[in-house]
Design brief:
This protein is an alpha/beta fold. Helices cover 26% and strands 35% of the residues. It contains six helices and twelve strands. The longest helix has 13 residues.
Amino acid sequence: MKKCLILANGKPPSKSVITFLQKKAGYEFLICADGGANTAFRLGLKPDVIIGDLDSIEDEIKKYFEKEVIVKKINRQNDTDVEKCLKFAVKKKFSNAILLAGTGDRLDHTIANLSIALKYFEKINVQILHQKSMLKIITSKNKIKTTIGEQISLFAFDEKTLFSSKGLKYPLRNISLPFGKKEGASNEAITNEVEIDVKNGKAFLIREFKIMKEFGFI
């Protein structure tokens, strides 16, 4: 399993979180999306590659990294810098990616990155870390090791996608959770293993990062 981190230009996690993902969870390869290189520099991290149209990376930081890091300038404007990074990851046959700093003070960027994760699901498993929460895309049947009391949220995108569950405080019995009609936010684990079955579509599963970290589901 080939894993990478993609560091975007939003609000980043702490260096200790990134170090854990690299050293303990196997996400060693670091791709910076344009201005994400500014964050890497300030955190004392060395990217393996910097990709984007390079309109956000600071000139001095670009010059610093160019000495020993691959910097790929891609001028096309029909995809975002994050999507450029994902295309690179797919081409290099990475199977798993965690997007860091993909959320922040720009709501349009946040929504775009959620959309991109869905778009590339068939090619690469993208998870998104935002502060205390981790988002991943799920299909079919999922068994989740957890701790009683963990907050678990589910979101889907049409009425065809159906959910069933075991081990949740508010059980799901072949019901839909279409975006804009019904939400599955803030359910709760009542056992140490939760089963979630998704039929006929894809869904966002949002969990607590500290618990995913504990049980190795990263």
